[in-house]
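Lecture notes, continued. The same structure-token format from the folding unit now serves as the input rather than the output. Read the line below as a description of shape only.
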């Protein structure tokens, strides 16, 4: 079974060809960072127009690199949501037109399901059931994953997502977009212990068992520290690095402790980390070290598949087709739709328990 995967939910055009007998045959991501850089964030209309420009050439290139004639495709998978409406529409319309022309199913995939299952593409995939820590620009969630399409939400952010907190704090520190990697890099030069920011919703975690997150207060604490230093005339490069490190430490600490609590509550020993913030080195070090100490295994997608890409979309579709979950809906589909706002726990056959 050979699947073309298309991802256009935000500021990356991702295309991949996945063969469930031979693995990933080709994958390519075109990042729009340079396009949005001067605006300090993603401009939705520009994002859509750029997807229009990039998508078809990327598809042709991926098919030829995979040495696959498009008539050999068994399905076209695309990100149906969540994401920017206009950007999603580009992927959905191209995928649906192509599938209709070829007489094969077009399968709409939930973006977070793509992230969540992407570690299964690695050489040593985790076995179900596991806990997934999903940390992207729009989401921070802890899920119990029992199988494909069987997800139970254990906790999520009440306000900003972890990636969003990284991006907003980076902006405050006048770092270029995208903020997460830039802030992490600045934090490398920070001195530990100079600033100490709050760890929201961590107090009495053992007793409360509350697995939700809150990052907006942390962002405010950084803003106040920043302002105070500026007023005192000591907001130099070193101080900004010290603030970045203290911010990152607080986020990593909260994510680590909540994840440990989720593993304990669910009685599981396998953790999967997915989404853009999963590329953060400090987070990886913290989770790995805690895993060694507490006896759980941590799985990450390959670094290139941490951020948005088409491979995870093709792969999620392959797993759904293999599990017999998606095929009927996909073949019966007429026209196409996108879902800019879409909870993973609302995704078709996905079960929810709050
Ligand atoms: O999963 P993703 O590529 O896109 C969404 O689905 O949102 O995640 C993007 C988020 C952004 O907020 C970005 O700043 C953050 O992931 N990110 C990082 C790092 N790399 C990407 N945050 C912290 N450290 C990083 N190394
Ligand atoms: Zn993503």
């Amino acid at each position: 079974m050979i699947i073309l995967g298309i991802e256009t939910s935000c500021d990356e055009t991702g295309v991949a060809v996945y063969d469930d007998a031979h693995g990933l045959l080709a994958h390519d991501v075109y990042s729009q960072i340079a396009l949005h850089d001067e605006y300090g964030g993603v401009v939705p209309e520009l994002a859509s127009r750029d997807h229009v420009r990039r998508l078809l050439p990327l598809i042709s290139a991926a098919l030829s690199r995979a040495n696959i004639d498009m008539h050999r495709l068994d399905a076209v998978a695309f990100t149906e949501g969540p994401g920017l409406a206009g950007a999603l529409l580009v992927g959905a319309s191209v995928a649906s037109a192509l599938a209709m022309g070829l007489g094969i199913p077009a399968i709409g995939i939930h973006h977070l399901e793509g992230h969540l299952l992407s570690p299964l593409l690695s050489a040593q995939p985790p076995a179900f059931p596991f806990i997934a820590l999903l940390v992207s620009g729009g989401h921070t969630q802890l899920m119990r994953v029992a199988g494909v399409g069987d997800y139970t939400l254990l906790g999520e952010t009440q306000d900003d997502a972890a990636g969003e907190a990284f991006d907003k704090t980076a902006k405050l520190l006048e770092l270029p977009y995208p903020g997460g990697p830039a802030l992490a890099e600045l934090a490398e030069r920070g001195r530990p212990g100079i600033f100490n920011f709050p760890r929201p919703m961590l107090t009495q975690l053992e007793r409360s068992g509350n697995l939700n997150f809150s990052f907006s207060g942390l962002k405010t604490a950084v803003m106040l520290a920043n302002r105070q230093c500026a007023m005192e005339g000591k907001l130099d490069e070193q101080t900004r690095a010290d603030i970045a490190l203290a911010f990152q430490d607080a986020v990593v600490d909260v994510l680590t402790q909540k994840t440990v609590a989720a593993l304990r509550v669910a009685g599981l020993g396998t953790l999967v980390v997915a989404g853009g913030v999963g590329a953060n080195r400090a987070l990886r070090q913290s989770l790995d070290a805690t895993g060694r100490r507490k006896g759980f295994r941590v799985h990450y997608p390959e670094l290139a598949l941490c951020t948005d890409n088409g491979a995870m979309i093709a792969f999620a579709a392959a797993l759904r087709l293999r599990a017999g979950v998606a095929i009927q809906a996909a073949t019966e589909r007429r026209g196409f739709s996108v879902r800019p706002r879409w909870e993973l726990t609302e995704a078709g056959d996905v079960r929810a328990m709050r």
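Point for the exam: The pocket of KG4 (ligand 1) is lined by residues 10, 115, 136-138, 163, 166-167, 178-181, 184, 275-277, 279-280, 307-308 (CB under 6 Å).
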